[in-house]
Automatic annotation (TrEMBL):
The protein's role, per its UniProt record: Acts on leucine, isoleucine and valine.
One family name in Pfam for this protein: Aminotran_4
GO biological process, one term: amino acid biosynthetic process
Lineage: Bacteria, Pseudomonadati, Pseudomonadota, Alphaproteobacteria, Rhodobacterales
Name of this protein: Probable branched-chain-amino-acid aminotransferase
Enzyme class of the recorded protein, top EC level: transferase
Cross-referenced InterPro entries: Aminotrans_IV (IPR001544), Aminotrans_IV_CS (IPR018300), Aminotransferase-like (IPR036038), BCAT-like_C (IPR043132), BCAT-like_N (IPR043131), Class-IV_PLP-Dep_Aminotrnsfr (IPR050571)
E.C. number(s) listed in UniProt: 2.6.1.42
Amino acid sequence: RTVYVNGDYLPETEAKVSVFDRGFLMADGVYEVTSVLGGKLIDFQGHCVRLARSLSELDMTNPMTDAEWLAMHRELVAQNGIQDGMIYLQVTRGNPGDRDFAFPGPDVTPTVVAFTQAKPGLAENPQAAIGIRVISIPDIRWGRRDIKTVQLLYPSMGKMMAKKAGVDDAWFVEEGHVTEGTSNNAYIVKGNRIITRPLSSDILHGITRAAVLRFAAEAQMVVEERLFTVEEAKQADEAFISSASAFVMPVVELDGAQIGTGKPGKLVPRLREIYLEEMRKAAI
Ligand code: PLP
């Protein structure tokens, strides 16, 4: 692969980042994952807006304009011949040349790294016809989950707990209510109503979430942004997750209890279709 590091496009074996980089030592950095379908970027503007916000919340300077981010992403897509897949982008606070808890001064510039992940047939994922199974686990992450930081240790542990339990993923639960999935937003469906947690610092403000809720309202589905419990989710007609790489994915089991018929229902597959169709049309 050709990867991007601080202005250069290099073979992945030649790309280097300092051992003193604060991303490496302190998880002091943020990231974005953008999907590519048919060689085009999905909802790229949304990712640029969230990236700018994550950086600003952490007092980091945004090293590039949106036009420059776009050009760099397109260059990576072209150089790696990506049709379907993802672009991972990471911006860390950079390399102060030593380890220190205090943020370095403005002379230290952010480190920017980006690479492609080819996923042929990403939108035709056969899992969507089956759905995924999840377990619930306590949400013990920090209090600023709205910032997309590279602190992904607990979400990784959650994924491993799911694997050990023989299922696909985990939903985090805090004070009796579902927050989100390890790397996705969580929803339940009752009749024509889509229920999902409102935006706050408790969850990541999913770019896919925003689009999905917009399309759902346009398709005359009712969107209810409120808290929900694991018990309520088990009694739901359908459930699903959303993320830039999974799009809209049915959830058919929670903590061993079947949701609805235990198979993807009617509303969620329809929402997935609408999402993919609309986003392909708007891809850049
Ligand atoms: N919530 C968490 C914790 C995530 O890590 C992600 C994506 O990685 C999401 C939600 C979904 O966000 P998006 O739709 O922007 O990919």
